Automatic annotation (TrEMBL), chain A:
Family the UniProt entry places it in: Belongs to the archaeal Rpo3/eukaryotic RPB3 RNA polymerase subunit family.
Compartments (UniProt record): Nucleus
PANTHER family: DNA-DIRECTED RNA POLYMERASE (PTHR11800), DNA-DIRECTED RNA POLYMERASES I AND III SUBUNIT RPAC1 (PTHR11800:SF13)
Record-given protein name: DNA-directed RNA polymerases I and III subunit RPAC1
One GO CC term, this protein: RNA polymerase III complex
UniProtKB/TrEMBL annotation, chain B:
Principal localisation: nucleus
Domain named DNA-directed RNA polymerase subunit 2 hybrid-binding: residues: 677-1059
Organism: Rotaria sordida
Stated name of the protein: DNA-directed RNA polymerase subunit beta
Enzyme Commission number: 2.7.7.6
InterPro entries hit by this protein: DNA-dir_RNA_pol_su2, DNA-dir_RNAP_su2_dom, DNA-dir_RNAP_su2_hyb_sf, RNA_pol_bsu_CS, RNA_pol_bsu_protrusion, RNA_pol_Rpb2_2, RNA_pol_Rpb2_2_sf, RNA_pol_Rpb2_3
GO biological process, one term: transcription by RNA polymerase III
Stretches assigned to the RNA polymerase Rpb2 domain: 192-372, 448-511, 548-608, 630-662, 1061-1146
Gene3D superfamilies: 2.40.50.150, 3.90.1070.20, 3.90.1100.10, DNA-directed RNA polymerase, subunit 2, domain 6, RNA polymerase alpha subunit dimerisation domain, RNA polymerase Rpb2, domain 2
Subcellular location: Nucleus
Functional description taken from the UniProt entry: DNA-dependent RNA polymerase catalyzes the transcription of DNA into RNA using the four ribonucleoside triphosphates as substrates.
RNA polymerase beta subunit protrusion domain: residues covered: 43-421
Coiled coil: none
Pfam family, one: RNA_pol_Rpb2_4
Length: 345, 1150
């Protein structure tokens, strides 16, 4: 019974293969188990523990959920949540070394600080720039020689050029329609001000109008609101036999620092204890040593997801996750509607 | 007892000795630092530059001296003599006497030749007085970039930048008419050396190809039926060798026999030849010369034309012996002794070879080969042109001087620089080398420098072609020669017909230039060699006597060979002798060879004396600190150059641990045995050898950066990668050739696993988000040129503004992108069939001025009769739009205005684009997958590329696996790892890093499927590998057609993608259909869909009619309409035109 339970709830890491990777706990698969969906049970088992949350990144544990659902959140975060990005570049002047297309591509990848929820999708046939679907920036920079620059380098301004590096801070937001009142100027703009766009030399100049639209990551990676969203399964390290002294030290070295601690037992030996399995990154190093191989078992807990979201900056990661859940819900609703519709028909 | 003791002692001693010599040779740390030091003074293309510099500075003067005087027959008092010749610095004549210096880049842009005037000082007779003129220009010489005459010579980066030149560009090529051309290194059998081989009749033969400034002839000595003969082109028959000796003036048989050798076996072999001479009744020199004179071919011109009258046949024979046969052996005042010894030694070698005492020579041995470089080839050509130039002058002088003129004859007025200028430019720009005096006709000597990638350019500069025919199926010259070690790259050769014939230089190879012989002869004499002309045969072949030869000529003999060799080596190491002089012995033949000729392959080695290398850690430290250069190493005798022949005499250790008592030299670094292209492969010593060869070919197709001046250039086709990256796993060679500064590829995160089914046959799966973020993105520049031609009737092409629709006041669609001047605007996006340059050509280009005036006077139309102009626009033809990058207006050397346009396309990878790693593993993109569908690891990383593991077992590219480990470890540590050949970071160390950073030591990670969200069942080999994007892209290749153009003559669909042609159902496909019996399908494919044509056939006469009427029968009674291929109808009509009547007879269908 214990081994069956193991198969149901654990993924086993062997030296050369991974066992029991797929979930098998669907109804009727195991005699004696009631795997029917039970909302109360699910509610009871579902746990979310946030271990880290700041403006751009978060890590939280998502426990008691199926891989398919966790993966759905991940996929939606990457590909289906909208964000704003520069989509069109109107080039008035570009005498930099970068060709127009390359410059435009670079600009497109700049993460923008603009709440996509306040915008609507651009209708492709509509060429007019509307206040509710478009953001406009201006980027006009000309490089000049620095008259203050001295050759001996004593001057503070050692840089012989002015504006030789064009950063995102040079981007200037141009509100259209009611945008000036709707947004505060610090709410709209590039997420970071020190992204290098292009380098110029005296005489070179760029004069661009940057038009931003709303889009989703499936369309182009620049619209993805996350750097990445991903999860890993919670590692579980089981010491089948007690491990002492040299072997224990060896074992400690096999894992990321902090995973294995040594504690003194009363008999003057040091014994290995698993302290923070969460930190292990599954190098399976311990399995290489014959002495340790039989003493340990490396597992991953099937329904314990350590989820991490790195936001690009427009929205906070928790907000993104909530949006992702909402999107999943709306998809479910849609599916239910379709099913109902079909049944009714 | 005592004996035993002694023995013991002895053995003890020797052990001690061994111990001493085997005393651990300390490994020299960082001795690879000698390689960059070497490359600093002898760069990758230094051989080209050295060779060209030698020509420009030295050889051109020698050529001038050899052809110094011009005399004429009509006036004995006239002469013209060259006093000096000099190549000035490159400049351009802009007309109106404006001459200004020019930069190579201007030549590239303006389609001009980068050449410098050759100026001479002459002394000649004008009327009655002697005149000296200085600085006369006799022609222009194309200048090799970075040579000593080039404006880029020894310029720093800032100066280069000012001249729009890339400091990393190797130079060594020429620019003629705007194209960069390389004179490839040519491989040849060395001249003036005896070679023993078997001829077609399986006879032993000793041949010499003697080459002097004037002639190039081949002489052979062979044995036939126990007698020895001499064969030469200028002789109709082969001449018994004894007669030759008699003709040399050695009349006594004993003397002859002695010259060949006094050993019994030699006399046994040779006696038959002596007898034969007696039988022929030839005893004296005169008789022998007479005999030879009967066997001479009609003599070459130089004797027959003007001087023959003064010469008797015997004199001619004497002349031939002196100057044609063995031309390189000097005959001074008709003293043939040296030549006799030379001939005798050839006979001796044949005898020895016959008896199996010496082996026959290997033609493929690199010691017997010489490499011809740009300088030598240009020297040959220049001398030919210079001679033609002089004869031209001579002809003119001969014609004009006898006529009495008011004006005095001045040669300088008749100098036409075109002969030399055009001769050189045409030869370089076509690659056809025609040298009349050697009857040499070579094609494909020069090639356009490939600028596909930086590596391609460098690879081209080190390329060596063989004169061997490519079609012949012999394996000898194609196979890898052991003597190639360290000199030529064992990997870098093309596949297919050029395999093994086209080779590349290794990293440290140097090719010698000529070294003056005279001081060497004097030195040898001072070192105690004896004059061979003073010796008889017995002395020459005495047991301890060694013949000393210099560049294939006998200069003497010595009985202290060791001393001679040692002293020459000593002097060379001390720097008193040129470092490229080599000495080696042929022990069996008892010959010491000294070589100072050009074209020998050589490379530097560390000198080892008494088991200890001369270079120590101290020296390397000084080198690293910049206190020493490679030249100091040479001067101090720590390092020396060995050529292939001397290498054979040396005992070279590859590693310090291999050094023993006999070791004479130590390898600097083993990775230098690879060339520049193979050097960029990480861990090549772990790969299957053909994979490295494939990578050598593919590295040249990889896109990347080309040079710092890439945006300034205007190439016909230029591929650039938008975000090239440095190699995560690099090699020393990569650093040495500066590939890091101009890389060609990107480090892709690769997961080795199977995914979908779109990865079979090496196809790759790409991550769409990676492509969105710029992976594999490239720019394609294409050049288009319009020349504004001028015509004989003084009219010329015009460019007119766009045609504007009167109603809308807008230009018509085709002209939408044109500016008002009729040329497309910069930055404009052009679509298929839009006009780029709206050019017009006058309708009549041949009408003479008079005719035109006539027509104007009669019709009184104005000269600018616009409607007469034909539209000849430059149209953009490509289904994918492009952007105009650059428009350049300039004039070329013919004062023609040219418009150069550069179009730009930015492309992201698509399905079908070709990629390759650095291990000869190419593959096309089979599928582009969304990032969320990609597998990811615990860190949330997705691969950029998924590669199918089936690519490994059969290819055995272990290097690629190690590269991944190295890359992964490097990324985690934040440093670049080395994968240098025969070295590089060890797997154990790389694994340690991985373990330290919490990764699996094998590089295998636990991945989670992006589709199901569950972990994958196996661990996936996951990490960065450097991937190259190759130039083959679907966009340039894809082609399909339903209907389209047909060719005019046959009315069949056109051929080829460029003409929107049809896809041919070939003969083999046709055979399949016949075999299957699908006759209607064949009919449909071959006729109905191709060139079906309706003809009227008269069934009475069987000829074609028309409109239901037969013109032959004058009736319409039996005319039927049938469908035949148009090509068939054409054939019948063509046959009719040749008086053959094909008749068609028709039957009614049953």
């Amino acid at each position: 019974m214990a081994s069956l339970n193991n198969i149901r709830t654990r993924i086993k890491l062997e030296e050369t293969e991974v066992l029991h990777t797929t979930s098998t706990d669907f109804p009727g698969n195991y005699p004696g188990y009631d795997d029917r969906l039970n909302l109360d049970e699910f509610r009871k088992n579902l746990k979310i523990q946030i271990s880290n949350l700041d403006t751009t990144t978060t890590e939280f544990d998502l426990i008691g959920i199926d891989a398919a659902i966790a993966n759905a959140f991940r996929r939606i975060l990457i590909a289906e949540l909208p964000s704003m990005a520069i989509e069109k570049v109107h080039v008035t002047e570009n005498s930099s070394v970068l060709p127009d297309d390359v410059l435009a591509h670079r600009l497109g990848l700049i993460p923008l600080h603009a709440d996509p929820r306040l915008f609507v999708d651009k209708v492709s046939s509509d060429t007019k720039e509307r206040e509710d679907d478009t953001l406009i920036f201006k980027l006009k920079v000309a490089c000049k020689k620095n008259p203050k620059a001295t050759t001996d380098g004593n001057d503070n301004s050692k840089n012989p050029y002015i504006n030789s590096n064009v950063y995102t801070e040079h981007m200037e937001w141009i509100p259209i329609g009611n945008q000036a009142t709707k947004f505060k100027s610090e709410d709209v703009g590039p997420v970071s001000h020190d992204i290098l766009i292009v380098k110029l030399r005296p005489g070179q100049e760029i004069d661009l109008k940057l038009v931003c639209h709303k889009g989703i990551g499936r369309d182009h990676a620049k619209f993805s609101p996350v750097c990445t969203a991903s999860y890993r399964l919670m590692p579980e390290i089981i010491l089948k036999k007690p491990i002492y002294d040299e072997d224990a030290e060896q074992l400690q070295k096999c894992f990321t620092q902090g995973v294995i601690e040594l504690e003194d037992d009363n008999k003057g030996h040091r014994r290995a204890v698993v302290s923070k399995p969460r930190l292990d990154m599954c190098s399976r190093e311990a399995l290489r040593y014959p002495a340790l191989k039989d003493c340990i078992e490396l597992n991953k807990i099937r329904d314990h997801f350590i989820f991490s979201i790195e936001s690009v900056g427009a929205l906070s990661p928790d907000q993104l996750f909530i949006d992702a859940i909402k999107l999943v819900m709306s998809k479910c609703d849609r599916l239910l509607q379709e099913i109902d519709g079909n049944i009714n028909n | 007892m005592g004996v035993q003791k002694n023995k013991n002692l002895d053995s003890h001693d020797t052990v001690d000795d061994l111990d001493q010599s085997a005393a651990p040779v300390k490994s020299i740390e960082d001795k690879w630092k000698l390689v960059p030091a070497f490359l600093k003074i002898k760069g990758l293309v230094k051989q080209h530059l050295d060779s060209f510099d030698y020509f420009v500075n030295t050889e051109i003067k020698k050529i001038m001296l050899a052809n110094q005087e011009i005399l004429i027959e009509s006036d004995p008092s006239f002469y013209m003599r060259y006093l000096n010749i000099e190549v000035l610095s490159p400049c351009i004549d802009e007309g109106f006497n404006i001459v200004r210096p020019i930069t190579p880049h201007e030549c590239r842009l303006r389609d001009m030749s980068y050449s410098a005037p050759i100026s001479v000082d002459i002394e000649y007779i004008r009327g009655k007085e002697r005149v000296i003129r200085k600085g006369l220009v006799i022609g222009k010489l194309p200048i090799m970039l970075r040579s000593c005459k080039c404006v880029l010579y020894q310029k720093n980066e800032a100066e280069m930048a000012k001249m729009r030149e890339c400091p990393l560009d190797p130079g060594g090529y020429f620019i003629t008419r705007g194209t960069e051309r390389v004179i490839l290194i040519q491989e040849q059998i060395s001249k003036n050396r005896m070679l023993i081989e078997k001829d077609s009749k399986d006879r032993f033969q000793c041949t010499v190809t003697s080459t002097t400034q004037q002639t190039k002839t081949k002489t052979g000595v062979y044995e036939s039926k126990g007698r020895y003969f001499l064969a030469h082109n200028s002789l109709t028959d082969d001449i018994p060798i004894v007669i030759i000796f008699k003709a040399y003036g050695i009349q006594s048989d004993q003397e002859i026999a002695e010259l060949i050798g006094f050993e019994d076996y030699i006399l046994n072999c040779f006696s038959a030849s002596i007898e034969e001479c007696h039988r022929l009744g030839i005893f004296t020199q005169i008789q022998a010369l007479k005999y030879i004179s009967t066997k001479m071919k009609s003599l070459s011109k130089q004797f027959s034309s003007n001087q023959s009258s003064r010469h008797s046949r015997i004199d001619e024979a004497r002349e031939i012996l002196a100057h044609i046969i063995f031309a390189h052996v000097p005959v001074i005042e008709y003293n043939y002794k040296l030549k006799a010894v030379y001939t005798a030694s050839m006979v001796r070698r044949v005898i020895q070879a016959q008896l199996g005492l010496v082996n026959i020579d290997d033609r493929d041995y690199y010691g017997n080969k010489r490499l011809e470089l740009a300088g030598q080839l240009i020297a040959l050509l220049f001398e030919d042109l210079f001679k033609r130039f002089n004869t031209e002058l001579q002809k003119i002088a001969n014609k004009i001087i006898p006529r009495q003129r008011a004006q005095q004859f001045d040669v300088t007025k008749h100098i036409r620089p075109d002969i030399i200028t055009n001769g050189l430019v045409i030869a370089i720009s076509t690659g056809n080398w025609t040298i009349k005096r050697f009857k040499m006709e070579r094609h494909g000597v020069t090639h356009v420098l490939s600028r596909l990638s930086y590596v391609a350019g460098i690879g081209m500069m080190t390329m060596i072609t063989s004169q061997f025919e490519k079609t012949r199926k012999v394996s000898g010259p194609r196979s890898l020669q052991p003597s190639q070690w360290g000199m030529l790259c064992p990997s870098d050769t093309p596949e297919g017909e050029g395999c093994g014939l086209v080779k590349n230089l290794a990293l440290m190879t140097h090719i010698t230039t000529d070294i003056e012989e005279k001081p060497l002869i004097r030195l040898a004499q001072n070192l105690g060699i004896e004059d061979i002309t003073m010796m008889n045969g017995e002395e020459i072949y005495a047991d301890n006597m060694f013949i000393v030869m210099l560049n294939g000529n006998i200069i003497g003999a010595t009985n202290k060979p060791k001393k001679l060799i040692d002293s020459i080596r000593f002097l060379r190491r001390k720097g008193y002798l040129n470092e490229f002089i080599s000495v080696y012995t042929l022990k069996k033949q008892r010959v010491i060879n000294i070589s100072s000729d050009s074209g020998r392959l050589c490379r530097p080695y560390i000198i080892v004396i008494k088991g200890q290398p001369k270079v120590t850690n101290q020296h390397i430290q000084e080198l690293a600190l910049g206190q020493k250069t490679f030249i100091d190493f040479l001067r101090q005798g720590l390092v020396e150059y060995l050529d292939v022949n001397e290498e054979g005499d040396s005992n070279i250790a590859v590693y310090e641990k291999d050094i023993n008592k006999e070791t004479t030299h130590l390898e600097i670094e083993p990775f230098t045995l690879l060339g520049a292209c193979a050097g960029l492969i990480p861990y090549p010593h772990h790969n299957q050898s053909p994979r490295n060869t494939y990578q050598c070919a593919m590295g040249k197709q990889a896109m990347g950066a080309i040079g710092y001046n890439q945006s300034q250039r205007c190439d016909t086709l230029l591929y650039l990668l938008v975000y090239p990256q440095r190699h995560l796993v690099k090699t020393r060679t990569i650093e040495l050739i500066n590939l890091e500064k101009l890389p060609a590829g990107q480090n892709a995160i690769v997961a080795v696993m199977s995914y979908s089914g779109y990865d079979i046959e090496d196809a790759l799966i790409l991550n769409k988000s990676s492509l969105d973020r710029g992976f594999g993105r490239c720019i394609v520049y294409k050049k288009q040129v319009v020349a504004m031609k001028r015509y004989p009737n003084r009219s010329c092409d015009k460019i007119k503004g766009p045609l504007i629709n009167i109603d809308t006041k807008k230009p018509k669609w085709e002209h939408e992108v044109l500016d008002m001047d009729g040329i497309v605007g910069v930055g404009e996006i052009v679509d298929n069939k839009q006009v780029l340059v709206n050019k017009y050509t006058p309708s009549s280009t041949t009408m003479t001025l008079a005719e035109q005036q006539n027509s104007t006077s009669t019709t009184t139309t104005n000269v600018f009769a616009e409607p007469e102009d034909k539209e000849t626009p430059l149209v953009y033809r490509n289904s994918v739009p492009a952007c105009i990058e650059k428009v350049m207006l300039t004039s070329n050397h013919e004062d023609m205005f040219i418009v150069k346009l550069l179009t730009r396309q930015t492309r992201r990878p698509e399905i079908g684009d070709k990629f390759s790693s650095r291990h000869g593993q190419k593959g096309v993109c089979g599928l582009i997958v969304q990032q969320e569908d990609m597998p990811f690891n615990d860190y949330g990383m997705c691969p950029d590329i998924i590669m199918n593991p089936h690519g490994y077992p059969s290819r055995m590219t272990i290097g690629k696996l190690i590269e991944l480990l190295g890359g992964k470890a490097g990324v985690l540590e934040g440093k670049f790892h080395y994968g240098t050949a025969f070295g590089g970071d060890k797997i154990v160390d790389l694994s340690k890093v991985l373990i330290e950073k919490g990764f699996n030591y094998l590089g295998k990670d636990l991945l989670t499927s992006g589709l199901t969200g569950e972990p994958l069942q196996s661990y996936i080999f996951f990490g960065p590998i450097f991937y190259q994007k190759l130039k083959h892209m679907v966009q340039d290749k894809m082609h399909a057609r339903a209907r389209g153009p047909r060719s005019v003559l046959t009315r069949q669909p056109t051929e080829g993608r460029s003409r929107d042609g049809g896809l041919r159902l070939g003969e083999m496909e046709r055979d399949c259909l016949i075999g299957y019996g699908a006759s209607m399908l064949i009919l449909e494919r071959l006729m109905i869909s191709s060139d079906q044509f309706q003809v009227d056939v008269c069934n009475q006469c069987g000829l074609f009619g028309y409109n239901g009427w037969c013109q032959f029968c004058k009736s319409s009674s039996d005319v039927a309409t049938i469908k035949i291929p148009y090509a068939c109808k054409l054939l019948f009509q063509e046959l009719q035109s040749m008086n053959i009547v094909p008749r068609i007879s028709l039957k009614t269908q049953i």
